[in-house]
Design goal:
Belongs to the acetyltransferase family. GNAT subfamily. This protein is of the alpha+beta class. About 25% of the residues lie in helices and about 30% in strands. It has a single domain, classed as Aminopeptidase (3-Layer(aba) Sandwich), CATH 3.40.630. It is globular.
Length: about 240
């Protein structure tokens, strides 16, 4: 999705972890490809092992596809010299017919924290909060958010439950549980997500001149706050 191609989101709430959401760029592909070498990660994310060339092609495809939106989750903990890739958060959109014959926009959301050093910091929770709030701001016609989770993945089920998702379907043949937040029937959930963006500052991403650090992580530059963002975050990592 081109909408977020230069968007960086950073939580400015005092209780948020130090993190950034940045667009998926070519400089991120190598680390992402290395993550996908882990069979357990592929199993939990229902992903296939691709060649590095195929991963680069996928990055271009996601960038162009208006039905997909992805951010790379960057861990900006003070223990690191610079923000480093920790995982990703994605949305896939589709149209579903409602009972009255109308077309409703459904956004399937998923999150992955792949780096062991970045687990149990709250990154997945805040990545989902930021992604859903951002996506609703650019697609206010979104009718509901959906999550599809393996029934053995108790951590993910608990995560989505804490964010207000409720179970609406089980698919034993795929070992999946489907959960959702219905923005049409749940006015409070809709208002909560509309208000969530106040907890985030927005900047521009610039990859020109990005380098590769000693540990293989891509370097990055973040420009000043976008003009449309009126909240100055105390956690800017320039």
């Amino acid at each position: 999705m081109r909408d977020n191609e230069n968007v960086v989101l950073e939580p400015c709430s005092a209780d948020a972890p130090r993190m950034l959401l940045v667009p998926y760029k070519p400089e991120h592909v190598q680390v992402y490809h290395d993550w996908m070498a882990d069979e357990r990660i592929r199993e939990l994310t229902c992903s296939e092992r691709l060649t590095l060339e195929e991963e680069y092609e996928n990055q271009v495809s996601w960038h162009k596809d208006s039905k997909k939106c992805t951010f790379i989750v960057m861990d900006a903990d003070v223990q690191f010299e610079q923000p480093r890739m920790a995982g990703d958060v994605n949305i896939f959109t589709s149209l579903e017919e409602t009972d009255d014959g109308q077309q409703a926009l459904v956004a399937e959301v998923e999150v992955m924290i792949a780096e062991p050093a970045s687990l149990r910091k709250g990154l997945a929770t805040w990545a989902l909060r930021g992604m859903m709030a951002y996506f609703l701001s650019i697609r206010p016609d979104t009718a509901r958010f959906v999550a599809k989770v393996l029934d053995e993945n108790g951590a993910s089920l608990s995560l989505f439950a804490r964010l207000g998702f409720t179970e609406f379907r089980r698919l034993p043949v795929f070992d999946e549980i489907h959960l959702c937040v219905d923005l049409i029937s749940d006015a409070q959930a809709h208002q909560r997500l509309c208000s969530e963006l106040a907890n985030w500052s927005r900047r521009k991403y610039a990859s020109e001149g990005a380098d590769i650090s000693h540990d293989g992580q891509p370097g990055m530059k973040i420009d000043q706050l976008c003009a449309e963002c009126s909240t100055e975050s105390p956690r800017h990592h320039g």
